[in-house]
Amino acid sequence: MERRQYLALGDSLRCIGDFCRYGWSRFSAAAIDCSQGFQTPRAEACALVARRLDLEPEDLPEVLSCRVTRAEAERILDAFYQREILRRPTAYILGEAWFAGLRFAVDERVLIPRSLLEPFIEEGFAPWVRAEGVRRILEIGTGSGCMAVALALRFPEATVDAVDISPEVLELATENVRRHDLEERIRLYPSDLFSAVGDARFDLIVSNPPYVDAAAMAQLPPEYRHEPRLALAAGEDGLDCILPLLDQAHAHLLPGGALVVETGDAEHALLARDLPYPLIWLEHPAGGSGVFVLLEGGGLLADR
C-alpha cells in the first residue's frame, strides 16, 4: 500500500483517542513484532501518537477527547504507516529509546537499546561487584552509548572506556554522552573487541555483544531487518564474539576484576562447550539467565 492511500484510511478519525484505538487495532491485526521496545501493539500505538504530538505516553489519558489538526493527523498516520507497512521499529520512527530510565537518541546505525543487563546494571552487579572498588570500566560494543551512560551514572567514581567496531556508531554514542553531560568521564573510541585497548586493565568489563546464531538470524521478524546486522549476527552458533571476549579478557582485568557478558540464547551453545572458565550465571528478575560473570582472582569482593 502506498503512503497516500494509507493516510486516506484515517480520514474519519477526529480525536486523540480515535488515533490510539485505530493504531492499536491495525497493529494487532497486522501482528507486528513488539519485542524491540514497547512490548504490545497498544503501547506502540500510544507511544507513536503521543510523541508525534510532542507529549509523553503518560499524558494521553488527559487529552484523549481532544481533536487533532490536519497536520497532526498526517504526522501520526505517517508514523503508523512506517510501523505497520514498512515494519520500521517505533524507536527508529521516533528517533529515541529508553534504557535504565534514561532517554537516548537512536537511528538505524545502532541496535535499539534493550538488554538483559539492564536490571543488573541498576543493582551494580551486586553481590559480585563491589561498587566502591570500581574505578575503571570498559564497555565493549557500546552502540548508542546507552550502557556506557548507565554504567557511568551507577558507578559515579569510575571512568568508562566505551568502544565499538563502527566509527559511525560512535558518532551517535558521542551525541548521547553529551546529552547526559558525561564527556569528562566517558571516553569513546573505535576498537574490534580489545584491539585498540592496548595493555589497559579494568575493574569491570561489560559487553552485550552480537550473539544471534545463523538459524535464528534467518527467522528474525521483519522489524529486526532494520537493525544493523553487525550488531546481531554472531556466526553459526552465536559465539563468534563471546569466545574471543572470554579468551582475551584476562589480559585486561585488574586483580579482583569482573567480566560481565550478555549471551542471550547463545547461553546454550556456550554451556555445551568444555570451557576452562568458571562462569557464574545470573538469574534475571523475569526468569532465566543469558548473562554470566567471570571473576578475576576472586572478584571485587576480595580484599585488595
Q: Key features?
A:
alpha/beta; elongated; disordered C terminus; two-stranded antiparallel ribbon; 9 strands; Rossmann fold; 304 residues; 15% strand; Helicase, Ruva Protein, domain 3; 11 helices; 7-stranded mixed β-sheet
3D architecture notes:
With 304 residues, this protein is an alpha/beta fold. It has 2 domains: 92 residues, Helicase, Ruva Protein, domain 3; 200 residues, Vaccinia Virus protein VP39 (Rossmann fold, 3-Layer(aba) Sandwich). Helices cover 32% and strands 15% of the residues. The protein is built from 11 helices and 9 strands. α2 runs parallel beside α4 and α3 runs antiparallel to α4. The C terminus is likely disordered.
The CATH superfamily of the largest domain is known as Vaccinia Virus protein VP39
Helix-strand category: alpha/beta
Q: Give the number of domains.
A: 2
Strand count, sense and barrel status of the largest sheet are: 7 strands, mixed
Order of helices and strands: HHHHHEEHEHEHEEHHEHEE
CATH class category label of the largest domain: Alpha Beta
Number of strands: 9
Annotation field: number of helices: 11
Helix content: 25-40%
What is the approximate shape? elongated
